[in-house]
Amino acid sequence: MRLSRYFMPILKENPKEAEIVSHRLMLRTGMIRQQSQGIYSWLPLGKRVLDKVNKIIREEQNRSGAIELSMPTLQSAELWQESGRYDAYGKEMLRIKDRQDRPMLYGPTNEEMVTDIFRSYIKSYKDLPLNLYHIQLKFRDEIRPRFGTMRSREFMMKDAYSFDLTQEGAVHSYNKMFAAYLRTFTRLGLRAIPMRADTGPIGGNLSHEFIILADTGESEVFCHKDFVNFDIPGEDTNFDDVAGLKSIFDKWTSVYAATSEMHDEAAFNAIPEGDRLSARGIEVGHIFYFGTKYSEPMGAKVQGPDGKEHAVHMGSYGIGPTRLVPAIIEASHDENGIIWPASVAPFDVVVINMKAGDQACDEACETVYAALSKAGKDVLYDDRDERAGTKFATADLIGVPVQIIVGPRSIASGEVEVKDRKTGARETMTVEAAINRLAG
Amino acid sequence: MRLSRYFMPILKENPKEAEIVSHRLMLRTGMIRQQSQGIYSWLPLGKRVLDKVNKIIREEQNRSGAIELSMPTLQSAELWQESGRYDAYGKEMLRIKDRQDRPMLYGPTNEEMVTDIFRSYIKSYKDLPLNLYHIQLKFRDEIRPRFGTMRSREFMMKDAYSFDLTQEGAVHSYNKMFAAYLRTFTRLGLRAIPMRADTGPIGGNLSHEFIILADTGESEVFCHKDFVNFDIPGEDTNFDDVAGLKSIFDKWTSVYAATSEMHDEAAFNAIPEGDRLSARGIEVGHIFYFGTKYSEPMGAKVQGPDGKEHAVHMGSYGIGPTRLVPAIIEASHDENGIIWPASVAPFDVVVINMKAGDQACDEACETVYAALSKAGKDVLYDDRDERAGTKFATADLIGVPVQIIVGPRSIASGEVEVKDRKTGARETMTVEAAINRLAG
Fold it and tell me: Are residues A245 and A328 in the same domain?
């Protein structure tokens, strides 16, 4: 992408309304724009990151055996009356009447709808287990949306729903998602800690939040320091291996971790003082097992091997991509801007032309840009008619992992500089060497 | 994907509510499910097709230089009051009040919002031309939603918006989208005919609908038969070539074509009778040039080379992916089911195990499934415990382009059958030959 033809509106000033660093940086880099209170556009740079985050989420959901579909944003009130949540949900639910005066709502979550889909088609235990997910917009009419897309009203959620004949089956489905989440967050460059959590309006009695530690987090969290060293399940994880997944779950829940709602002061104090971690955190995922809470009232039943009808055991599993993006920034930035983990960077590399219009610089830049694009890399080419200093600042601010700097002096001897955004390390090498280094 | 672990709820009976073939087939194959009137879930099989359609749309938008972002679904009423459309839009606009009693709406289109984004950041002609698009859900509260996702209330739209300093520039932007649309529809396996059209509530004075011919189409259309032979712009089309794109536009608008709203009986009758085509059609895309209709009242102005402020010239360009899927089915099916063009097929190939449980069949199927999956193909493996006849019927119904049929008799001599869904042609070959044929 040639920056001269891109739409990446960098703000010169720090926006005053932004209280936390991710919100500030997302506004400054032109990743997002507020359209109404708590409702955002994702501008091109932000959209790229969001797409990469969703791709990783999707790959790990699929790997675990979950199946993607897409449910609509608007739901009929009737469904929620069946589960009893229509009245219970309160003012966060955006209630709507259509032109025929039928009561509708903008889905804040999809337990009812997916249960309705399930009961329409699935009649036998032979079709279980089943896990259906979608990545879809949700709306929760928060009274105080804030921190940009960290707590917005219209937001994106990956929500998965598992269906099993028995509680044991459902626990295995829960463990699948538990392992998939550990893999997902790691691939996003985050270390997330699963913590026993309150189940809130979703209901049920088994629930974990996945929390990343950050000073700006809204939650107060308490855990053992050992989490930092636990192994992440590998790519070769067998999601059908009941005992194997249970051992992952057991390991990751073997030491103390809890949010303030579930905090047990005595248990925490039993940890040696040097191993106690008391911090603030950002919730980036939440998983629930809630048995037959929805299947029972909504009649989602299957015939079991015994020939009788059984209400299915369900769980639901959420990740918020539009919250993950700022969470990654909270975890990875410096005074010059964002430092993207390579897996979610909007571009893999930025080519900085220090002197656009200089023939040697232009040619070298075009060569690098063409070669890396051809190699399948996402390349941003800063071909703007701007001072080199402005370009350096932009490149640091938007946090692309690698910068290739092409200036008139070094290109005279056929060389460019390759800079690592995270470490700041610079290396001088030939154009060819730079291409070979980055095309791989 | 192993069918035994997939969620593809095939209906045995033809659903009574479906009036047209695409609606019937989408319900029967478990591609979609109606959740409320005119509001659909895309079940896994449908979601796969929709994703492939969107991928092609996106690739062609990007090729033409358009830049992707994502605007939210909910908009504030204020924006629409600025353009004057809030009152004008009528009952199709879903109006909503949030918990603070602020008037909102579910976007039926995004001219206002994108103009608001533009005016917030772009101040100089040097940043033009610009074309911003997104693929996002829309809501239009149709009084009579029907034909499944062909005319639904919640639907997906790719909508692009171009911004230029001058009318000439805007016409070139229009021609870019014109060429991109021709390429897009061709890649989707469709022949779409651009027709002069009424501009409706979007406004402006230059507009084309892209129509595919189908007996079930809602529009009556009139055109010259020559369209069927016109060349489609190639992959190497230079979208910066003003004259080149104009010649494409001129060619494709050189002979008569109009929807009934714009029909000129005299002009049509001037065509030799054998060359007249009077038919029904489905609108699959609509492009508009409307000058300063929104930029003027909303103050979207840039400084020109003359130092003065100019309201920008705009166009908007829509394609409906959730309508394209049934349109493709209308254009490509037979009495046994859907016949997907390879580019949008939910799976590239289906492996049919005629006798699940038979060791030789199972092994051959596993070999083919693994080899083709490894080669990057989307493979559906029908490993269900069902009769062969049921599996054949399912494979034909869901319209996967190629079937690999593994039966106990032929596998005894190491052979399988490869069937082309479209032609019905069958070929017997070794397992290896089948893999080599399809892995390419």
Answer: yes
How many independent structural domains does chain A possess? 2
Find where tokens 């979950």 sit. A66
CB A322 within 8 A of CB A282: no
Tell me whether residues B96 and A91 touch, CB distance under 8 A.
no
Residue B117 lies in a domain: yes
Spatial distance between the Cα atoms of B155 and B43, rounded to a whole number of angstroms = 15
Residue of B11, B28, B34, B43 for testing the chain A interface, max A β-carbons within 10 Å: B43
List all residues 6 or more positions away from A157 whose beta carbon is below 8 Å from its beta carbon. Answer: A109, A135, A136, A137, A138, A318, A319, A320, A321
Q: Strand (E) positions, A24-129?
A: 32-36, 39-42, 67-68, 74-76, 94-97, 103-106
Give CA–CA dist A406/A363, Å, rounded: 10
Residue A330 sits in the same domain as residue A353: no
The verdict on residue A378 lying in a domain is: yes
Please indicate, yes or no, whether residues B124 and B272 belong to a single structural domain of this protein.
yes
Rounded Cα–Cα distance for residues A440 and A2 (Å): 22
Q: How many CB atoms lie within 10 A of CB B409?
A: 9
DSSP, res A117: H
Assess if residue A40 is contained within a domain: yes
Residue A40, chain B, CB below 8 Å: the answer is yes
B42 at interface of A, judged by CB pairs closer than 8 A: yes
Q: Which domain holds residue A124?
A: 3-338
ipTM of the prediction? 0.96
- Does A208 lie in the same domain as A109? yes
Q: In A, which residues are within 8 Å of B69 by CB distance?
A: 7, 41-44, 46-47
Residue B259, in any domain of the structure: yes
Name the closest residue on chain A to residue B68, using Cα atoms. A44
The verdict on B153 and B278 lying in the same domain is yes
The CATH number of whichever domain residue A367 belongs to comes to: 3.40.50.800
| CATH number for the domain that contains residue A178 | 3.30.930.10
Q: What DSSP character marks residue A137? A: E
Which of A258, A280, A253 lies closest to A268, judged by CA? A258
Q: Is B253 left (phi over 0), alpha (psi -120 to 50) or beta?
A: alpha
Q: What is the pTM of this model?
A: 0.97
Task: Dig out the tokens for B418 from the structure.
Answer: 């490869």
- Using CA atoms, how far apart are residues B47 and B26, in angstroms rounded to an integer? 11
Q: What is the pLDDT along chain B (440 residues), one digit of tens a residue?
A: 999 999 999 999 888 889 899 999 999 999 999 999 999 999 999 999 999 999 999 999 999 999 999 999 999 999 999 999 999 899 999 999 999 999 999 999 999 999 999 999 999 999 999 999 999 999 999 999 999 999 999 999 999 999 999 999 999 999 999 999 999 999 999 999 999 887 776 666 789 999 998 888 888 999 999 888 899 999 999 999 999 999 999 999 999 998 888 899 999 999 999 999 999 999 999 999 999 999 999 999 999 999 999 999 999 999 999 999 999 999 999 999 999 999 999 999 999 999 999 999 999 999 999 999 999 999 999 999 999 999 999 999 999 999 999 999 999 999 999 999 999 999 999 999 999 999 98
Write the residue in A41, A69, A154 that is nearest to B44 by C-beta: A69
- Residues 6+ away with beta carbon under 8 Å from A371: A435, A439
Say whether A42 and B117 touch across the interface (CB within 8 A). Answer: no
B189 and B252 co-located in one domain: yes
The last residue of a domain, from among B338, B370, B385: B338
Q: Which of A144, A189, A157, A192 is nearest to A322 (CA)?
A: A157
Which chain A residue has its CA at the smallest distance from B129's CA?
A: A5
Domain limit, last residue, from B287, B319, B338: B338
Same domain as A332, residue A433: no
CA pair distance A118, A67, nearest whole angstrom:
13
Q: Is there a single domain that holds both residue B233 and residue B174?
A: yes
Best residue in A98, A115, A132, A144 to probe B by mutation, most B CBs within 10 Å? Answer: A98
Instruction: Tell me how far apart the terminal alpha carbons of chain B are, to the nearest angstrom.
Output: 19
